[in-house]
Design brief:
heterodimer, A: alpha+beta, two-stranded parallel ribbon, two-stranded antiparallel sheet, 6 helices, 38% helix, B: alpha+beta, 1 helix, 12% helix
């Protein structure tokens, strides 16, 4: 979330629609987005996460959930302790990702996280956006 | 699995007020970035 907040100006400058999609319920998502100052419009997937699945985002087991190593995973959690909060709903095994879709509805960038710390650099997304006609 | 260069699936999503909308409606013809979050983080 901190990464998204830091990158907000870069997305605003490019005048694109940015949406943060969560699992869970609309009520819990609304509370979460307010508490964590999520800088984009928050949306919620339906139970069973059909939208995540449609974009090829998988559910994973505990091993993958903690990242490339247990030590790395625990370190990530510890360093982000102030930001991490347990959700009141949603699917903890659902992996994340980021996608750029152009004006015609064509996918121009796709990143499916391999582990929780595997976020795409915003510069890669901006480069894709800058290359759109 | 949707690939780069393919048409994005026009999934339906819920706004935080509980109302539903399709991705196409939400994007309204603008370039769009979708961040699918994991476990709210």
């Amino acid at each position: 979330m901190a990464q998204l907040r830091r990158a907000l100006a870069g997305y605003r400058r490019r005048q694109v629609c940015c949406f943060a999609v969560t699992t869970g319920t609309p009520e819990h998502s609304r509370e979460f987005c307010a508490a964590h100052e999520v800088p984009f419009t928050c949306l919620v997937d339906y139970p069973g996460e059909p939208a995540y699945a449609a974009f090829g985002l998988q559910k994973v087991g505990l091993r993958q959930l903690f990242g490339p190593s247990l030590v790395t995973g625990l370190w990530t959690v510890l360093t982000r302790l102030r930001e991490v909060s347990l959700p009141r709903s949603g699917n903890v095994y659902q992996m994340s990702g980021a996608f750029v879709i152009d004006r015609e509805g064509i996918v121009r960038f796709a990143h499916r996280n391999e582990h929780p710390a595997d976020h795409p650099p915003d510069e890669r997304i901006w480069a894709c956006l800058d290359a759109l006609p | 699995m949707v690939a780069v260069g393919a048409l994005a699936p026009d999934v339906r999503l819920l706004r935080t007020d509980g109302s539903a909308a399709s991705l196409r409606e939400l994007a309204a013809g603008q370039p769009t970035v979708l961040f699918f979050l994991r476990h709210y983080g």
